Amino acid sequence: MTRAVVLLSGGLDSATVLGLAREQGRECFALSLRYGQRHAAELDAAARIARTLGAARHEIVDLDLSRFGGSALTDASLAVPERPGAPGTIPVTYVPARNTIMLAVALGWAEVLQAGEIHFGANAVDYSGYPDCRPAFVAAFEQLANLATKAGIEGRPIHVRTPIIDMPKAAIIREGVRLGIDYSATVSCYQADEQGRACGTCDACRIRREGFAAAGLADPTRYRQPPR
Amino acid sequence: MTRAVVLLSGGLDSATVLGLAREQGRECFALSLRYGQRHAAELDAAARIARTLGAARHEIVDLDLSRFGGSALTDASLAVPERPGAPGTIPVTYVPARNTIMLAVALGWAEVLQAGEIHFGANAVDYSGYPDCRPAFVAAFEQLANLATKAGIEGRPIHVRTPIIDMPKAAIIREGVRLGIDYSATVSCYQADEQGRACGTCDACRIRREGFAAAGLADPTRYRQPPR
């Protein structure tokens, strides 16, 4: 069985990626990062999802990026915006180099596991303009991965799979529903409460809500209060 | 003053890189990783070196790679070899993706600090054949860095400087001596004891000892017992 490390945030996208990898018969090693994000609810969600979708193992790695700050997700003094930013701008919820760091940790684990794949739920359609979600970034990381590792230079390349990168949110949701994923167990909100209930106002909530609407499906998200 | 994040392991090479960066007038932010290595002595050394050489700040970031294992440096059940491996092989002291992870964390901090440079003490001459010490790896990381970050895509590129990558160990040592670096305070050994005293037999000890000999300088390394 092909082994894959699957980056699992606890949100909707990465849960779908794990579901797809399992459907393809991969032995999945789910990896989450406790990087100093505002809430632990998404990590609780990741653990639930890993179990439900049959990951062989789930690791939550600690790496505290809040000591550096520079993002509304890791610095409590920066507010999470309630409205989308201007087109072409990168919002303050961008965490400097976070996806590079997560992929790098995944790469280390993949090499030890002799896994030939890293599955990464980046999306470049319905997203917030983050630089480290674009296909060019992923391609550059894959190139780096095979120069960086013993596996790579010995001819056992490690591929970065991004099965949902070109899909609108509605299409991702339809895939997940087809796979039987319970999206009420996922947490996308940037500022969920301890029970994982979403704010309904941040960019992540907005994109997710619009995705369910576009898919013509009821939104199973648990909100703290009915969204406006 | 140009800001630079300097990767500082506590060994001879990265201490020299920090000394060179300070000589060039950089405001230096030293970064070390507690990744589950066999001993903490090199991190104590890093803290001393950062202070002595005038780093503006020194951060030790925790990221436990020993949960993944796969290297003699992070897995106590794998012995550190006492002899060099066959030419062209990568020794068991290679830590999967470690330098990629360290550079990724440095990238995140550099972006928050608005530092335009990461200084990295990779060496591709007197080294152990690690894939993530070669110029091609460094070039690929720099390319990735500027696709991955807001700074990069907004035209504030982050450069990876590797001032000693092409230097034989003896030349590095001569540079450090010129800068007044006290190499007795650095720890290169893979299995130093708690006081930072070197084993004298591992690959890192051998390369370092041969470097002092080739430079025609007395070896100030503190050994547990006189090297064979």
What does this structure look like?
Two copies of one chain form a homodimer. Chain A is of the alpha/beta class and 228 residues long. Chain A has one domain (3-183): HUPs (Rossmann fold, 3-Layer(aba) Sandwich). The first copy, chain A, contains seven helices and five strands; from the N terminus they run βαβαβαβααβαα. At the A-B interface, β3, α3, α4 and α5 of A face β3, α3, α4 and α5 of B.
What structural keywords apply?
7 helices; 228 residues; homodimer; alpha/beta; Rossmann fold; 5-stranded parallel sheet; globular
Give a short synopsis of this structure.
2 copies of one chain form a homodimer. Chain A contains 7 helices and 5 strands. The mean pLDDT of chain A is 94.
Write the layout of secondary structure elements.
2 copies of one chain form a homodimer.
Chain A: E1 3-7, H1 12-23, E2 27-34, H2 41-52, E3 57-62, H3 98-113, E4 117-119, H4 135-148, H5 150-153, E5 159-161, H6 169-178, H7 203-215
Parallel strand pairs in A: 1-2, 1-4, 2-3, 4-5
Helix pairs in contact in A: 1-6, 6-7
Order of helices and strands of chain A: EHEHEHEHHEHH
3D shape of chain A:
globular
CATH superfamily of chain A: HUPs
> Span from first to last CA of chain A?
46 Å
Neighbour order of strands in the largest sheet of chain A:
3-2-1-4-5
Helical stretch tally of chain A: 7
Give me the secondary-structure category of chain A: alpha/beta
Percent of residues in helices of chain A: 25-40%
CATH class of chain A: Alpha Beta
CATH architecture of chain A: 3-Layer(aba) Sandwich
Uncertain ranges of chain A: none
Biggest beta-sheet profile of chain A: 5 strands, parallel
> What name does CATH use for the topology of chain A?
Rossmann fold
The percent range for strand residues of chain A is 5-15%
Question: What multimeric state do the chains show?
Answer: homodimer
Largest interface: A-B, 45 and 46 residues
Q: What's the gyration radius of chain A in Å?
A: 17 Å
Number of domains of chain A: 1
